[in-house]
Each structure stands twice: as C-alpha cells, then as structure tokens.
Design brief:
about 80 residues; mainly alpha; elongated
Length: about 80
C-alpha cells in the first residue's frame, strides 16, 4: 500500500529493452535504445514529469548503460 515508488512506464519499457539487448549481445540496438532513453529522460525532466529523486535514479542508470557500451566495437 503505497510503499513502492511509482515508476515511469515509458522509461521502464526502454530500460527493459536495453537490458534485453545487452543480454543478447545486440550492441547496435542497445546503443540506439540508450540514445532513446536519454532523449526521453531529458524530455520528462524538462516537462517536470519526474520527481527529482526518480530523475537522479534514471540518470544514474543511463550512465551505467553508457559505460557498458563505451567499449563496444563493431564486428562486421
């Protein structure tokens, strides 16, 4: 009863897709979805649609994903 944080459904969907992409080694898709997450997060922050605490949490997750793909190299 009200003990959990209400998560942003749209952001969570993109995050879950990034996790799937990374776990399946779909590097290009992961990078594309990270860009999508970054843009969506900025839009929601600018529109005041996220609490500060949630915005910080999503930003930290975004940065972690960026680190995960920082050394990706194309294999083709």
């Amino acid at each position: 009863m009200g003990l959990f944080n209400k998560k942003d459904k749209e952001l969570e969907e993109v995050i879950n897709q990034i996790k799937v992409d990374l776990s399946n080694n779909y590097k290009d898709n992961a990078v594309e979805n990270i860009r999508k997450l970054e843009k969506l997060l900025e839009e929601k922050k600018a529109g005041g649609k996220l609490k500060e605490k949630d915005a910080v949490s999503y930003s930290e997750q975004l940065e972690a994903f960026k680190k995960d793909v920082a050394n990706f190299k194309r294999t083709y």
